[in-house]
Automatic annotation (TrEMBL):
Protein name: VOC family protein
Alphabetical list of SUPFAM superfamilies matching this protein: Glyoxalase/Bleomycin resistance protein/Dihydroxybiphenyl dioxygenase
Cross-referenced Gene3D superfamilies: 2,3-Dihydroxybiphenyl 1,2-Dioxygenase, domain 1
Tree of life domain: Bacteria
Species whose genome carries this gene: Streptomyces prasinosporus
Domain VOC span(s) in chain numbering: 22-136, 150-265
InterPro entries: Anthracycline_SecMetBiosynth, Glyas_Bleomycin-R_OHBP_Dase, Glyas_Fos-R_dOase_dom, Glyoxalase_6, VOC_core
Chain residue ranges for the region called Disordered: 1-20
Amino acid sequence: MTDARGSARPNGGAPARHAPGTPCWVSLMAHSPAATEEFYGALFGWEFRPGPQRLGPYVRALLDGREVAGIGLLPPDRHLPIAWTPYFASADVDRTAQAVRSRGGTVGVGPLDVADAGRLAICSDPSGAVFGVRQASARLGTAVTGVPGAPAWNELTTFESATVAKFYETVFGYDEEPVVSADVDYVTLHLDGRPVAGVHGVGGAVPRDRGPHWTTFFTVTDVDDAVDHVLHLGGQVLAPARDSAQGRVVVVADPEGARFALVQEGGTGRSPRP
C-alpha cells in the first residue's frame, strides 16, 4: 500500500514533493489532545512537536524524526465526529476547491494559509465524507509511508462507489480500477499507474452515526499484538481482524472513538479491499 510518491528518500534525504492527488497528510482533531498523544505515542512510537497553530493548538507526530501525522484540538462548539482526515496534495488549492464545488462537493474551511505547512482547505464530497486538500510550502507533509507506525492507505466507506469515485477522479485526475464482482462494490483510485486510495460501497451498511467517511490504515509489525496494545490503552476493536491477499487487517478506535485501521507490514502494495 504505497502512495504515488513512495517513502522518504534513502540515507535521510528530504522527501520529494507529493504529486497532485497523492495522499500527503492525515490529521486528527480531538477533544483531549494530550490524552490522544499519549495513546498514539504508546501505540506507534510517535514523538510530538508543536505547530502550526493557525487552527488552534496542534502538534506534528514524528516517527524517527520524520513527520507522519498531526493532532489538534477540536473546538468545543463544534459537534463533529472525532475522525482521522486524509489530505490530498494539490498544486493549487484554490483551483481544486473550485473543482470540488463544481462537482457537487462542499468546501467547509478555507482555502487558507497555515504558516509553513502551506495552503489548505477542508472539504466534503457529494456523499458527505470529509477530506482535506493541501498545497505544500516549507513542510511537504507525510515524510514516510509503509513502515510500522506510518500511514499506509486511505479508504472511503460510502453508499456506492461509482458516483463518488467519479467525483474524486474529476477533482484529482485519478484513474479507476473497479472490482468486477456481484458481491463487492469497490474501486481503487490510481495515480500515474499506482494505487493511492480505495472507495468501498456498502449500501445501507454505512454507519448512521457517522455516514460516509474516510478510514486511514497504519502499518504495524503484527496486527494481533497491536490489537492487544489498543485494548490495553483504552481503545476498542470495531471489527474482527481478517486476513486478505494484502495482509492482515483490523479496524479499531482510539479512546475518543476515532476510527482507524491497522494493516500488517509485508503486504503487496495494494489496497486491503474485501
